[in-house]
Amino acid sequence: MQLNLHTDYGLRILMALAASGERMSVDSIARRYGVSRNHMAKIAQRLQALGLVAATRGRAGGLELARPAKDINIGAAVRALENLDGFVQCLKPDGPGGCAIDGVCGLKGALVSALEAFLAQLDRFTLADLVRDRRKFMDRLALPAAA
């Protein structure tokens, strides 16, 4: 399964905040990952709406985790960020979409099982698990020195 870019960047924001242990600006996170600030800002708003991050405005503002990293489950975060209803057309809530083999095809069941296994594996991890060595993580994300 491939996560969409929105989910990927959402997880990256969460990992950066967990590793830093302090408030970070959207601009700083975007520069560290080499991603558009505007794109990261939209994702940060979604993370805030989901209750995963808290945002503070102003000069000393920025993003921080809304709760401890050990309390943020990766499977739950992916479920919240990713649109899993449309994993394949026949799994969408509005039905099979006129699929000629609906009702006789075993693919739907196989895909549902695979998706459940994927998410069950992610459920085994917290955000803290993903950034065990916080210093090394932040060293890797360090901004290059200005020339």
Automatic annotation (TrEMBL):
<dbReference type="GO" id="GO:0005829">
    <property type="term" value="C:cytosol"/>
</dbReference>
<dbReference type="InterPro" id="IPR000944">
    <property type="entry name" value="Tscrpt_reg_Rrf2"/>
</dbReference>
<dbReference type="InterPro" id="IPR036390">
    <property type="entry name" value="WH_DNA-bd_sf"/>
</dbReference>
<dbReference type="InterPro" id="IPR036388">
    <property type="entry name" value="WH-like_DNA-bd_sf"/>
</dbReference>
<protein>
    <submittedName>
        <fullName>Rrf2 family transcriptional regulator</fullName>
    </submittedName>
</protein>
<keyword id="KW-0238">DNA-binding</keyword>
<dbReference type="GO" id="GO:0003677">
    <property type="term" value="F:DNA binding"/>
</dbReference>
<dbReference type="GO" id="GO:0003700">
    <property type="term" value="F:DNA-binding transcription factor activity"/>
</dbReference>
<dbReference type="Pfam" id="PF02082">
    <property type="entry name" value="Rrf2"/>
</dbReference>
